[in-house]
Amino acid sequence: MAAGAPRIFVSHLAGVPVFDPNGDQVGRVRDLVAMLRVGGRPPRLLGLVVEVVSRRRIFLPMTRVTGVESGQVITTGVVNMRRFEQRPTERLVLGELLDRRVTLVATGEEATVLDVAIQQLPARRDWEIDKIFVRKGKGGALRRRGETLTVEWSAVTGFSLEEHGQGAESLVATFEQLRPADLANVLHHLSPKRRAEVANALDDDRLADVLEELPEDDQIEILGKLKEERAADVLEAMDPDDAADLLSELPRDDQERLLELMQPEDAADMRRLLSYEENTAGGLMTTEPIVLRPDATVADALARVRQADLSPALAAQVYVCRPPDETPTGKYLGTVHFQRLLRDPPFTLISSIVDTDLPPLRPDASLQAVTSYLAAYNMVAVPVVDEGGSLLGAVTVDDVLDHLLPDDWRETDFHPEEVVGG
C-alpha cells in the first residue's frame, strides 16, 4: 500500500467477513494480534484472529492479507486451519488493549483507551498501531463524560514492555531491528533455557528466518523444544530447501510426524527435496523461484520481483514456463534477467525477451557442477529441470556458499569492522 494509506480503527473490523480471492467467505475477524516494542515505538500488527465456519479461531498473518477495509478483509487464499494460540510477546488488540487505563505523557492525566488505529507502512507490507483514541478521566470506557481525543502511541504510557519486567518478550523486542543472522548469533550464545524462552516468544516468520541462520545443533535443539504443531508451522515458514535440510537431520519418525502436520502442498515440497542427495542441485534448490507463463508481461514480472520477502538472488531473474506455474511446472522455456526487465516497456511479453541460451541443470548435478555453472556464467541462481523439461526449482548462490564454507562457519563471530574500513 502506498504512502497515504488509509488509517483504520480496529473497532470497525470486529466481526467483518474475511474472503479469499474468489470471493468465498473464509470466516470473520474476532480480534487482531500485535507485538509490543520497547522504547515507546508503535506495536507491529502480526495478524488477525479469524473465526471460521466450524467456530474454530485461527491465526491469519498480515503477510497473507491483500486488502483491509471497514467492510471486509481479503486474503491470498492460503489459510492455516490450526487453532490460534497466543504467544508471550503477543497482545490481543480488542481483548487486551481496549478499555486499558493509560496515562497521557504530556499532562499526567489518566485516560481510557476506546479504540486504536492501524495503518500500513509506506512501501512495505508491515502494519503498525499508530494512533489511540482515548477518553480523559478515571471512569471506564462506558463513562460518557470526559474529553475524547486521538493521540500518537508514544503520547501515552501504560502498555510498554518495560512495565512488564524483563522476560523473554523484552529481549525479543530489544533485538527486533537485528538482521536474522545477527539475532541468530545472539541466540547461539544464550543458555539453552534462555534460548528456548526467546524462541517461544518469537513469531513464526521471525523464528523461521533466525533458524535458517543458526548452526545445525541449535536448529535441532530449538525445534525439539517447540510443540509439534508449532514446529510444523515454523518449518512451513522457512525456505523449503532450509526446512528440508533441517528435517533431514531428524529421526525418520520425527520427520513423518512433522510432515503429517504440515499443509499438504508444503509437505509435498519437503518430501520431494528430501528425495535428493544433499550435495546435488536437487538437494540444494528451493522450490519457490519466480515462475511466470509466457503470456505474462514485463509489468507482471516486475511486480513479482518487488515482493519484499524474496531474497536478492531469487529476485534476480524470473523463469518462464508453460502451465502449471507451480513447481514442478510445465515445460521450462528459459530465463528473463532482472536487468532486461528494466530495459523493456511494461507491456512487453516476457516470452519475447526470454534467454534460452543458458542450459539448466539436472537435479542430480553435483555441488561442483553447480558452483562451476554460477562462476562460468556470472549468475546468482541456476534453474533445475527434470528429464521431462519441467522446472523443479532453482539453486541460489547463498545456498552454494553454505555448503562450501566450513561446517562451523555459523559459530564464528562476525565483526563488521573487519569488512568496512578493516
Automatic annotation (TrEMBL):
<feature type="domain" description="CBS">
    <location>
        <begin position="354"/>
        <end position="412"/>
    </location>
</feature>
<dbReference type="Pfam" id="PF26205">
    <property type="entry name" value="SH3_actinomycetes"/>
</dbReference>
<protein>
    <submittedName>
        <fullName>CBS domain-containing protein</fullName>
    </submittedName>
</protein>
<dbReference type="InterPro" id="IPR046342">
    <property type="entry name" value="CBS_dom_sf"/>
</dbReference>
<dbReference type="InterPro" id="IPR038076">
    <property type="entry name" value="MgtE_N_sf"/>
</dbReference>
<dbReference type="Pfam" id="PF00571">
    <property type="entry name" value="CBS"/>
</dbReference>
<dbReference type="InterPro" id="IPR000644">
    <property type="entry name" value="CBS_dom"/>
</dbReference>
<keyword id="KW-0129">CBS domain</keyword>
<dbReference type="Pfam" id="PF03448">
    <property type="entry name" value="MgtE_N"/>
</dbReference>
<dbReference type="InterPro" id="IPR058838">
    <property type="entry name" value="SH3_actinomycetes"/>
</dbReference>
<dbReference type="InterPro" id="IPR006668">
    <property type="entry name" value="Mg_transptr_MgtE_intracell_dom"/>
</dbReference>
<dbReference type="InterPro" id="IPR011033">
    <property type="entry name" value="PRC_barrel-like_sf"/>
</dbReference>
<dbReference type="InterPro" id="IPR006669">
    <property type="entry name" value="MgtE_transporter"/>
</dbReference>
